[in-house]
Amino acid sequence: MKIIDLLNQKALSLSFEVFPPKTQMNFDSVKTATEEIAKLCPAFMSVTYGAGGGTSKYTLDIAKNIKELYGVPTLEHLTCVSSTKETVKQKIAEIKAAGIENVMALRGDIPPELEGADRSRWDYNHAIDLVRELKSANPDFCIGGACYPEIHPESATQKDDIMHLKEKVDAGCDFLTTQMFFDNNLLYNFLYKIREAGITVPIIPGIMPITNANQVARAIKLSGSFMPQRFKSLVDKFGSDPNAMKQAGIAYATDQIIDLYANGITNVHVYSMNKPDVAAKIQGNLSDILGK
Ligand code: FAD
Q1: Ligand 1 proximal residues by C-beta, below 6 Å
Q2: Which DSSP helix (H) or strand (E) runs through 28?
Q3: Residue 291 burial by CB count (10 A; 0-12/13-18/19+): exposed, middle or buried?
Q4: Half-sphere exposure of 34 (CA within 13 A, CB side)
Q5: Which of 89, 178, 238, 246 is most open to solvent, judged by the fewest CB atoms within 10 Å of its CB?
Q6: Are 257 and 263 contacting, i.e. CB atoms less than 8 angstroms apart?
Q7: 167 catalytic residue (yes or no)
Q8: What is the pLDDT of residues 176-201, one digit of tens each?
Q9: Residue 52 has pLDDT above 80, yes or no
Q10: What is the chain's mean pLDDT, rounded?
Q11: Tell me: domain 3-290, CATH 3.20.20.220, correct?
């Protein structure tokens, strides 16, 4: 099932993100966690891919398992930065052979050891190069791309970022998923600007439930996201009590999703990070709205 065909419904639907194991040793525990999430019957599940090859080995195995055992459509992430054409073509051939129809085309973060390197010789500099590669390998792939309501950290201005985003979409992205954000107004503002720039594909907002205080610093470092005072107060109050923090973080994410739906957004992607209990609680909080 292509993700683009799931995005035109009027009711709210959730998708969940998982990440593959780093080593074979963790494979079974990750597989079990992703299966627990698949049992919640989300609209689709995405499986991340480590830039530079770190966790790339098991992405396809996890995606295939979810799809074949539970019938949940999967979105396989693929990055291209610092990869050779040969490696990327090989990966695309494997994805195609596994019958995966949906691919998230990403550049990936530049590995620290390659910062400042002469990029002119790299086979891939931006996600748009991968979008083109995927389209030429299989015009039927449903392709997703990443977008940044608070602008990508490497962009000088939001105007530049949106201009490059439009080029990426025009190259063949069928939909976009956003970086996490904790203030929905940033998303609404971004949507207005990208629609004005002529980007018309569906946008899936990405919501990260913060379930422990340590995650806050990590999430900000990773995404550069703005933390509203309302969220900071919650971390101040509950950060030292793991159970209370988890409950408050899930409530905050649920509240964000309800507000998105109330404002006309029907597809929300939850960065559930291999935590079936968190995914289940969010889904449970929304049971009447989701009709599940
Ligand atoms: P690009 O679209 O290439 O954009 C990167 C920067 O380059 C932006 O500033 C953009 O404006 C600029 N740019 C784009 N095209 C051009 C051009 N032609 N000329 C000049 N500048 C240009 N990382 C992983 O390693 N694995 C994952 O599975 C993963 N999943 C993700 C899922 C989502 C939804 C998101 C939002 C991010 C994900 N990331 C993942 C992180 C992502 O790889 C990084 O944010 C990375 O720095 C940028 O990737 P991109 O695909 O957005 O790159």
Answers
A1: 48-51, 77, 79, 106-109, 126-128, 146, 152, 154-155, 161, 164, 168, 177, 179, 206
A2: helix 27-38
A3: exposed
A4: 32
A5: 89
A6: no
A7: no
A8: 999 999 999 999 999 999 999 999 99
A9: no
A10: 95
A11: yes
